[in-house]
Amino acid sequence: MLTKLAFKNAGKSVRDYAVYFFTLVLGVSVFYMFNSIYAQKDIMVVTETQNDSMVALCQLLSIISVFVAVVLGFLIVYANNFFIKRRKKELGIYMTLGMEKSKISVILVLETLVMAIAALLLGLVVGIFGSQFMSVFTASIFEADMSGFRFVFSVDALVKSVLYFAIIFVVVILFNIGAINRYKLIDLIYGGRKNEELKVRNIWVSIAIFCVSLIFLAAAYYLILKNGMVNINALFFSSIGLGTMGTLLFFFSVSGILIKLIQSRKNVYYKNLNMFVTKQLSSKINTNFVSISVVCIVLLLVIGIFSCGYSVQNSFSAQLRENIIYDFSLYGDSSFETTIYESLPEDVKQQDITWQEYSIYNSGEKLHYSDFPLDFSSSFIDMSEESLSIMLLSDYNKMLEMQQKQGIALGEEEYLILAPNELFQDTARQFCEKNISLPLFDGVTLKPTDNTVSRITTANQGFGGIYFVVSDCYKQQIKELSDTSNQILNINCKSDEQASQVKVSLEKQNDNNKGYYYFDSKQGIYENSVGTKAIVSFLAIYLGIVFMISCAAILAIQQLSEAADNKSRYELLHKLGTDKNMIYKALFKQILCYFLMPLLLAVVHSVVGITAANEVIKIFGRIDVTKNIIVTACVIIGVYGAYFGLTYMGSKSIISK
Fold first, then answer.
1. Domain range annotation of the chain
2. Could you give the maximum distance between any two Cα atoms of the chain, in Å?
3. For 132-149, what is each residue's pLDDT tens digit?
């Protein structure tokens, strides 16, 4: 009897709460797909470095999956709370007919098991087939050959999915049993008839709290823009705290203001069912202001993750191809007895290669960046206590020659400033814009040659940050000024095969014969960057999708519950002669406003947040943020819009019965 009733109820629940069931299926499928990435490696041809990157990525995703499981667990428990609330009257009737609470709990346990098993099986099927398409995306990120593509099944991902979601549904079952034991009969029978009252009745109190929320948000915006996201200090945490509190107070007070604002416009308030929509919307915002605030903050994270995270990974390959122009860069200093080139293996020196070796000197204790009127507040790195790096004009022209560019001339009283890396551009430009003199030696003061900052690449990896190029006539004085000099040797090969041979020779070279500390290669840096790009990509997409699903599902379930709780009110409107189309339009407006309110405030938050994150993004080079914001908007509109549509259709179905 109980089993039959449970199966019947489960069937009705799936039909009435398609959004809830869809979310469960989507959660399982996404969880499986991202945990099956390592299994996809078997159908790709990857290098040893790329394989190591995939191992690191999968380990990180395994850790992140625990967090994702917790998020989905809270979402499912939260959704289940509305699920139970929707059925209070039904459960109350069971109790009125004499059914014991223990038997009602058994029914709920069986229903939960049926829905859990159905969602888990369907989610795994979707995830297994979806992971085949995921393989194509994974291969494109790792730039791997997929000529050996075949169907892939991950036992590890299957076990993780079943285990994590089994734990989640055990928690749901315990929650249901506890909820039934707490409820009283009167709460179950009349639970749906209780009106939700405004927490703040006085309009002036609402306005005061609203103004305080705007002050908190303005202060949070100011602090994060001033401090940035690089310095994790008291100002950073203050901005987070003020922003969170401002968001909570905003939604706490906006319901009271919304009613008074619309009531003040009689032509709007009394038009169609706007009066009914306003009351319903304000009541729901007032009751759920905490959850709406959380949704708003999480949407901020989603926008930030997609726009910034995806922007970074999208620029990786292009930036590397632009900036890494040498096949090899070797790094040493003046402490070695020989130059870097002289210490190279003979088989490398016999190769038909192009090479140049440069010296980078420093100003020692003579000059530091703090000796000049510079503003480091907008710089990613504070260089105030560092000494200056100096390069001779002849070495600078050698670099130009290797890059097939025309050499330059420089007067004895001039200096050229060189800053290849974007991180140091702000500081470097100040020397030109402020026409800062360089008192390099006693009686010798140099002026910037023009207002241009050179961006010629010195080595594969940024070395020193900013260089001051001066005439060779000061060579002896610079050597006496500098306590040590850094040496850089750049090599370009004629072909990839030749580069592979050089790399093997350098790797085999005995440490005792080296005139350098280490070297890097274009291919090695590129392969290592693929791993970083993959981590950024998958984390951005994984977390972004999960957070997006959570936000949309919470709003959807709340509105479905609202429609179920107020079914009698919609029925009364129809009995009073209200046209069904007018009721559906009112329902559409209510759901649309409820979905838009947290999203719009999250957009405002994200504009400020992305502006503050620009300094961090600079580390990855120049990025077309506009393009990626459009992609982010399309993803959010797609997921958000899908849940909005399902919510409207589900709510419409509920009130139509």
1. 1-194, 197-266+283-287, 296-327+530-657, 328-526
2. 104
3. 777 776 666 666 665 556
